[in-house]
Amino acid sequence: xxxxxEGPTAVKATASSRKAHLAVSRIEPWSVxxxxxxxSLVCFIILFVAVAVTYxxxxxxxxxxxxxxxxxxxxxxxxxxxxxxxxxxxxxPARVLGYTGLIGALNIILITALSTVGAMLYNxxxxxxxxxxxxxxxxx
Length: 140
Description:
By secondary structure, the chain is mainly alpha-helical. Helices cover 62% and strands 9% of the residues.
């Protein structure tokens, strides 16, 4: 055999990995509250920017003007009276972004509160059943 015809060399892994069996018996509610507040705040910012960009695109395309015209024609009594509906105010940027801000603020409060209550409920149930068993493996 020549030196150019070397076969594949197999390297056998002999290192063993360590495993640890642990139980999550307590979750700190204060830590959960801080984490869930930050995550819900980031989600609120993403939601607000997404709604603002979507509103700007739809407004540029004239969707809100077409909807306002359509709703005004549908609500027109035909007798020259002032219509009872004012659809132009429904689609104003202040109203749309204001409702988005209100819903986002409520989501921040609710998500933070429910996550904290969830951590407390987990702690109560973990006292009864011992928590969740997990196995951690060290990888190299």
